[in-house]
Amino acid sequence: MEHLFLIGIGTGNPEHVTGEARRTLREADLILIPRKGPDKADLADLRQQICAEVLDDPATVIREFDLPVRDASGDYRKGVDDWHDAIAMAWAEAIARHEKPVHRVALLIWGDPSLYDSSLRIAARLTPQPMIRVIPGITAMQALTAAHAIPVNDIGAPFIVTTGRQIRDHGWPAGTDTAIVMLDGQCSFQSLPAKDFDIWWGAYLGMKEELLIRGPLDIVANEIVARRAEARAEHGWIMDIYLLRRRS
Fold this sequence. Notes:
By secondary structure, the chain is α/β, with parallel strands linked by helices. The protein contains 7 helices and 10 strands.
């Protein structure tokens, strides 16, 4: 493999795939699609749908592979590092199974490779190291603020993008009144003084299953927790994100 394309595909709407992403997919010899188990088959199916819509060369090979599962039982950082090593090995093995020499390999990255995604760190583990090209995509943050038709920041004011773990462990981040919270499977906004915040929450952004809730946190927090649990049980998976803004 000489070139590795990491292609941001947005948050579930095939129309989020940019013209540059479509052109780059057509340049690939091999496209890798991760499988995350039967409960998350929708994610692989969506990538297959995008490929079917974009590709015009029957010679382009699409190969699915099983994504390793992270061991969450021990130290968090070590577990993530070991997981990334295993994913890099899974990429290499999937490429090695290709019958012909592969020059250009593409991976379709949910959202954008730059925002709370580890594909670039995983790619750095490959040996020999390919030329890496990143194609930007629409982030979950953009999809959220567009769905609610709100600006991400107040006039001239900073905001922070963080994780549920950071909110739970360290509380509200200093120096800002606005936070975008990602990777939060535990509804960590429940650890904050609800009367002090407004929330804009979204799940399955850009997809037909899209869910949106907004309002004062002390009024809508329980609704979000319940709707999230119901949706996860129904679909077997959920991707959600929310914006919190401290009231003046």
